[in-house]
Amino acid sequence: DAAAIRSAEAFLVTVTTRLAIDRLRSARVRREAYVGPWLPEPLLADAAAPDPADVVAEAEQISLAVLVMLERLNPVERAVLLLRDVFDLDYGEIADVVGKSPANVRQIARRARGHVGEVGRRAAQPTPDYDQRLIGAFMEAVSTGDLERLTGLLAADAIMWSDGGGVVRAARKPIHSAQNVGRFFIGVARKMPPGVAFAWVRVNGEPGLLVATPEGPIAVVAFEIGDGLIVGVRVVSNPEKLGYAARWTDSRRARSSSSSSTSRRMS
Fold first, then answer.
1. Phi and psi at residue 46, in whole multiples of 5°?
2. Contact yes or no for 240/97 (Cβ under 8 A)
3. Taking the C-alpha atoms of 250, 34, 77 and 3 in order, what is their torsion angle to the nearest 10 degrees?
4. Are 64 and 163 in contact (CB under 8 A)?
5. How many angstroms separate the CA atoms of 207 and 201, rounded?
6. Of 250, 228, 245, which Cα lies nearest the Cα of 130?
């Protein structure tokens, strides 16, 4: 009956949340020893004409910026904020899940929102076409070494984060200012391996690039755009975080190959 279903749902929410809190506590300890900036594993979708599965998946994705901001929260704060603002549970239900009073849960939610700030509210972007033109101009300026043009496409206070996890070469600290970010990318471009290719993708719902060699992905780049300029760039090159990108790429290749075979049979 309905009561039994609600009871089962509450039980599953409680168990899942408490397991997640335990996992987050363990992850936080590991992250304290992480080499360089930490970024989440990126999730990809086609930049143009995504298939229905991608549309559904992207609708549930949280930008890398928001995911990183959630790292400011302790595990209980994160659980309370997500259960309240994403899953829309009331404070009494959340109190049962995390083992605290409703008044305490309300205070925790208020404190968590203060830590995260306004980052969760994305500014409206011009259009996907504008994003691609802006990033295309950025990549052209990088490839030609045009620092002046490059800095004109970046906000003056732009920031770049590079997550190599100590496995591959990457900046160990965030890079600040348009000039420094521009210089970094021009320097990286000069050391790119042969046969590298770039593909437009959506990265956790934001405009980005997949960087790959014939052997597979070597980096995913996500761009944060505001007021017509690039305000943030997040580069994930840690091979341990490119598993989804590799599977996504293989899936697209298989789909493309299947479509080509079907076309040949029909013609």
1. -60, 140
2. no
3. 40
4. no
5. 6
6. 228
**And the tokens for 234?**
């997040």
Q: How high is the pLDDT of residue 260?
A: 55
Q: What is the pLDDT of residues 25-55, one digit of tens each?
A: 665 655 566 788 888 889 898 876 445 455 4
Look up tokens 């997550």; give the residue: 163
pLDDT at 182: 96
Residue listed under structure tokens 């437009």: 200
The strands making up 175-176's β-sheet, listed across from edge to edge, are 44-46, 197-203, 206-213, 216-226, 229-236, 154-163, 175-176
Position 213, amino acid: T
Alpha helix ranges (H) inside the chain: 2-31, 52-59, 64-70, 75-85, 91-98, 102-116, 128-144, 147-153, 178-189, 243-266
Give 226-230's long-range contacts (Cβ < 8 A, gap of 24+): 226/123, 226/155, 227/123, 227/155, 228/126, 228/130, 228/134, 229/134, 229/153, 229/154, 229/155, 229/158, 230/134, 230/135, 230/138, 230/153, 230/154, 230/155, 230/158
Look up residue 88 and give its amino acid.
D
Q: What is the pTM of this model?
A: 0.69
Residue 249 scores a pLDDT above 70 = yes
Q: Output 218-223 pairs: Cβ under 8 A, ≥24 positions apart.
A: 218/193, 218/242, 220/42, 220/44, 220/245, 222/42, 222/63, 222/64, 223/131, 223/134, 223/135, 223/138
Q: What is the pLDDT of residues 2-24, one digit of tens each?
A: 444 457 777 777 878 877 777 66
Token match 């984060």: residue?
A: 161
